[in-house]
């Protein structure tokens, strides 16, 4: 699912990089310093996203031990591949273990141009975060739906794995482990398998794929819009600003929506 919050951060980053280049003159050191600062900011954002995903995995899996929480183990492995320091990962896990228990909740709302959103939250105080979010909604011409918009999406679990054997074998494996479907797709110029399943069984299916020696790339759930919508440029700008604001809430883990996002190359 396309994440407006993430895109907003990337676009902002590019804007500042261009501005820095414009005013840095001919100082090579200035350019290097700005580029390094930009990359550091991107890393910080990426590490924060990994930390949030770890929190959700622990809340859903009821354990901060990766050896018994497969989803957590997968996220940690992904974080390590992106050079997230082990000390930082351990610090996140320790902080979560010592924190108050939190639950995963969904909040849906409607925005400009018939746009619909689902926020996945991790919180210890649902009533409090709802009040804060409602304030943001009112200021941005949005209306809380209180669960009424959830049926506008198809909730699905997806597991990406490396390419192994052939599609016929993968299809038989999918049938045997209780997955609903499997297809070959291209991800980052690499052919991979995408297994789909009931979102409640993502961890279970992931474990069975691991037992069959599939290398897990990602395992997560998505909300797929049944009726995607196009928005005007003005509404898209409003949505980007809204998602940037939502991203300031630590409780907001992911943002799902039904918006058809224009390709950046065509913007």
UniProtKB/TrEMBL annotation:
Top-rank taxon: Eukaryota
GO CC terms of this entry: mitochondrion
Domain TACO1/YebC-like second and third intervals: 108-259
TACO1/YebC-like N-terminal domain boundaries: 27-96
Pfam family, one: TACO1_YebC_N
Assigned protein family: Belongs to the TACO1 family.
Record-given protein name: Translational activator of cytochrome c oxidase 1
